[in-house]
Amino acid sequence: MFPDELKYTKTHEWAKMEENTDVVIVGITDHAVKQLGDIAFLELPEAGNKIKKDSPFGAIESIKAVFDLTSPVTGEVIETNQQITDNLELLNTDPYEQGWMIKIKIENKNEFESLMNASVYEGFLNEKGEEH
Amino acid sequence: MRLIFEKSISGKRGVRFPERDVPSACNIPDGLKRKNYAELPEVSELDTVRHFTQLSQHNMGVDTNFYPLGSCTMKYNPKICEEAVLYKGLADLHPLIPQLPDGNKLTQGALQVLYETSQFLSEITGMAEFTMQPLAGAHGELTGTMMIAAYHASRGQKRKKVIIPDSAHGTNPASAAIAGYEVVSVPSNAEGVIDLDEFKKALDKETAAVMLTCPNTLGLFNTQIKKIADKTHEAGGLMYYDGANLNAILGKIRPGDIGFDIVHVNLHKTFGTPHGGGGPGAGPVGVKKNLVEFLPISRVVKKTDGTYALEYNYPSSIGYIAPFYGNFGVILKAYIYILLLGQKGLTRVAENSVLNANYIMKKLEPYYHLPYMRTCMHEFVISAVKQKKNGVRAVDIAKRLMDFGFHAPTVYFPLIVEEAIMIEPTETESKQTLDKFIDIMIKIAKEADENPKITKTAPHNLGISRLDEVKAAREPKLRWTK
Amino acid sequence: MPYISNTDEERAKMLAELGLNSIEKLFKDIPPELMSSSFNLPKGKSELEVRRFIKELASKNITDLICFLGGGFYDHFVPAAVGAITSRSEFYTAYTPYQAEVSQGTLQSIYEYQSVISSLTGMDVTNASLYDGGTAICEAIMMAVRITRKKKIIVDEAVNPIYRKMLHSYAANLNFESIDVPVGKDGRADRKTIESELDNNTACIVLQNPNFFGCIDDVSDLADLAHTSGSLIILSTYPVSLGILKSPGEMNVDIATGEGQSLGLGLCFGGPYLGLMATRSKYIRQMPGRIVGETADKNGKRGFVLTLQTREQHIRREKATSNICSNEALCALSALVYLTLVGKHGLRELAELCNVKACYARKRFLEIPEIKQKFDSPIFNEFTLELPANAEDVISKLVHKGIMAGFPLGRYYKNMKNCILVALSEKRTKKEIDFFAESLGEIL
Q1: For residue B475, which residues of chain A lie inside 8 Å, CB to CB?
Q2: Using the beta-carbon criterion (under 8 Å), do C59 and B109 form an inter-chain contact?
Q3: What angle do CA B344, B345, B347 make, to 5 degrees?
Q4: Which of A104, B115, C64, C206 sees the fewest Cβ atoms within 10 Å?
Q5: pLDDT confidence of C164, banded at 50, 70, 90?
Q6: Domain C80-337, what fold?
Q7: Is any Cβ of chain C less than 8 angstroms from the Cβ of A64?
Q8: pLDDT of residue B379
Q9: Which domains are present in chain B?
Q10: B420-467 tens-digit pLDDT
Q11: Smallest CA–CA separation between B389 and chain A, in Å?
């Protein structure tokens, strides 16, 4: 159901370590996209911003609701995906590849390692009784 | 309908000005002039009148349709109020006149309106004094929270938090946040009112105030209100009353009697002034004696010789929060409304608004889920969770009502009820109208069971179908351009 | 009771449905000790009695003096068609247009209002209105604070002093600090002092054009200056003047605000008025207030909805861009109808008319040898005179001659006890101006 190569948070972000680097790519799961309904706006940080694990790094809005995007790791934003802010449909069609949001240069790899894997995330959703 | 700009034809004029009767020429240097004329329409007076008259026909208002929009108190607005604001001496009165030497003498009638309205509101809410200045309910809230801060500062304290229940109007947390407070949201309990245990946990020496609507946005009266007020006062905090729902308790309960220190009143809800398609409103604020010194300036006073004057010398005042004396035209309408209804009439407003709401609630109970089974006040909340099983949501029911000539109730508020539909009939509606509305609500409930597609795709009869809000937000187009 | 239509019999039927025999039972949840301790109000009156009484009150306000009083609030002519439209109850008895399909009248009119104000100010986008010109500046400042994440505000003292008093009380309670900069000798913003106050902590510079003294101040240079330090420019404007004057957009202003009273609204003792606010596209998500956008229905038919609502209090609560909920929609409609009637060329003509009357009046007054022009900058429709006597005394004397001569500047500016601010509109005739000049000559 959820890609095995990714890690997950309880706030429905996914994270992926770029091979042989200290860069983590972050997006949101298709479960989160479905919950939001029609997405109207995405606010992402600028490259160079420092962000903290479990703190908001941006916001995603439907017509009548706003949700914080929570960072799974601590580090510096080195790139944001300009393509999705212009084409929000990508979040629906391809949340795990083209729908990535930011790349973070991290300080502590353990933060990444301690995130949930796909099966734990799926279990977490089942426990909450949420459809996915 | 076409936009007015699309009807514009170069050379047309809707108004003519007198010819120049002075020998001077325009002396503005070219460098200070704009390069191009502003793109205003060019149409005749008839074009203008027809365009806007036709536009008005694409609106529902209280005068044309039943408008049970919860939390908004869409009652009938007496026509004499609309007439009176146009009288010479009122409509054409310059606000700076009282600031001229002896200016008070030139504005005695207007000052009397302000003074007496504030006295009436003090008696109605059980407060010591009112400022008429706040220009809307939310502006009243901001004024109130600024006075709360001034009160604590005068006691050498800088408290950080304002406690607000999760069922509150969004303006409450927004106003408190703008005034620099941290907002602590307290959940509601199974009875629909603020959870007393959770409230006690949140209350401490950092609590500047508790902001409550009573009855709350679920239309429920909190019988523990005095206890909450006592606890808050023990902790050194103040009680703020959001007057949005004052209609329910006129002549029955006074916020001042049950422990509130500050209230704002929405004249455009309880006191019959029209909503104007979103405004203007007015949000006067009343306070208990211990807060009077912090009221904004100017203040209207009655002198021993029976005349009225504006006074500015109040050193502890929070200062100016509006340029003049409030939305005078709106205040005047509310003043007239109070004069017309009087003591008994206002009490009957509360009684009939509560009766009308309970009557509809009772009749709809078999067809819709009622999250709180209690006598309601002037409004109540039902939920479309039963209908949701067939894919019919609160918004669909709202849109379907329009097909039958009713404005929709408030939907998806308060946030704590799933698929909330909040209905406030007001006292001015007749049993005949309520019965018709009830019949249609029942019809829609049945339709949602038997033929949900009709409900989900409503409205069908308005000449316009459901509008795409996602498109509007994703690709904002906010003005016409040539 | 004319405003409650149910009869006793109907009420009894409704109560019976609820299983109750009296209305009091509906209030049974309320503990008796919480019931009203007093409700001492007058007895209700008939419409006829109230009407008579209000007419009597209205007659106690003196409004038949010839009006040269302005100060940001002007006695303009309002065509009858404005009132004919705004008194249509389909408009004035509606609520905020949350339900778009039954509110297209309100929504399209707001969209048209946003369009005319955007064009008039030369800005990209306009909101659906704020309370008034003063709170619009306060909202603009809070917006600038959010955008720049800085807290210092520089305010030109030629910004309406009443608005500045509002800023002071907002600043005392809210999250910014403001510094007032005295006006320069020519009656315009003092560039040098502003430049020395401007630093990296400055969120914005607040200016007014034409300013409170009536002087025209092209703030383009200050806009450039502000932008070099990452600050914004807020310019409060008088919309009628924009019929001829350089627009805020042309001056590279970031947020334009204004009092819309002059656009078809009565003076009405200070309100309801109309807060104008327009800004650049890039700041739209930080703008307070309602915004209407164009969209289409399921069949592709054009329609209008409230949009970008996630900025607002009913969704974002304590994180909203503003606490504003009610706005001044009906006043915005007045402004739109007014601007439609006046039209593209009419507004230019009106602005010129105000200016020539002011030029003529000033010339007449300056013919009196004791009177001096206070500032020598160009004016629009209002100007400052220095009299040989206390302005308040002169104003009092002119009231007895039937003239509302203007505003005594000493009330807000310590060193200007002898200065008077005189305003002209298209309504003042040559005869009235001559009478004013002659009366003034006699008094001095």
Answers
A1: none
A2: yes
A3: 65
A4: C64
A5: very high
A6: Aspartate Aminotransferase; domain 2 (3.40.640)
A7: yes
A8: 97
A9: 4-56 (no CATH), 97-339 (3.40.640.10), 349-469 (3.90.1150.10)
A10: 999 999 999 999 999 999 999 999 999 999 999 999 999 999 999 999
A11: 15
Is the CB of residue B343 less than 8 Å from the CB of residue B251?
Answer: yes
C-beta atoms surrounding B18 within 10 Å: 10
Contact between B138 and C323 under an 8 Å Cβ cutoff? The reply is yes
Q: Which H or E run includes C162? A: helix C161-173
Phi and psi (nearest 5°) for C407?
A: -110, 130
Shortest CA gap B308–chain A (Å):
48
Q: List the single residue in C with minimal CA-CA distance to A62.
A: C310
Give the model's pLDDT for residue A62.
86
Q: How far apart are the first and last CA of chain B?
A: 17
Nearest chain C residue to B21, by CA:
C430
Which tokens in the block code for residue B316?
Answer: 């502890």
C309 vs A: CB within 8 A: yes
Q: What is the pLDDT of residue C334?
A: 98
How distant, in Å, are the alpha carbons of A18, B221, B476, C1 from that of B428?
A: 66, 22, 39, 10
3-state SS class at C280: coil
- Find, in chain A, the residue whose alpha carbon is nearest to that of B471: A40
User: DSSP of C79-90, one letter per residue?
Assistant: -HHHHHHHT-HH
For residues C48-66, one letter each, b for 16 or more C-beta atoms within 10 angstroms of the residue's C-beta and e for the rest, the string is eebbeebeebbebbbbebb
Instruction: State which residue of chain C sits closest to B134, comparing Cα positions.
Output: C131
- Any B CB within 8 A of A63 CB: yes
Residue B6: partners with Cβ closer than 8 Å, 6 or more residues away: none
CB B321 within 8 A of CB C169: yes
Question: Per residue in C358-389, is it b (16+ CB within 10 Å) or e — as a string?
Answer: bbbbbebbeebeebeebbebbbbbbbbbbbee
- So what's the pLDDT on residue B59? 97
Question: Is there a contact between A65 and C310 if contact means CB atoms under 8 Å apart?
Answer: yes
Least Cα distance to C256 among C264, C245, C265 occurs for: C245
Tell me the nearest-neighbour CA distance from B412 into chain A, angstroms.
10
Six-digit token pair at B288? 């208990």
Q: Which residue of A has its CA nearest to C319?
A: A66
Statement: C66-76+345-443 belongs to CATH 3.90.1150.10 = yes
Q: ipTM strictly over 0.85?
A: yes
pLDDT at A127: 84
What is the fold, at CATH topology level, of the domain defined by A7-127?
OB fold (Dihydrolipoamide Acetyltransferase, E2P) (2.40.50)
Asked if A66 reaches chain C (Cβ–Cβ under 8 Å), the answer is yes
Q: Which of C29, C59, C359 sits opposite B221 (nearest CB)?
A: C29
List all chains that touch chain B, counting a touch as 3 or more CB pairs closer than 8 Å. Answer: A, C
CA dihedral C183, C186, C202, C323 (to 10 degrees): 70
Measured CA distances, C125 to B421, C23, C251, C281 (Å): 34, 52, 16, 6
Residue boundaries of the structural domains of chain C: 66-76+345-443, 80-337
Question: Which of B106, B254, B471 has the CB atom closest to C62's CB atom?
Answer: B106
Between CA B143 and CA B131, with CA B320 as vertex, the angle to 5 degrees is 55
- Partners of B420 in the beta sheet? B383
Judge whether C16 is closer than 8 Å to chain B, CB to CB: no
Record the pTM. Answer: 0.96
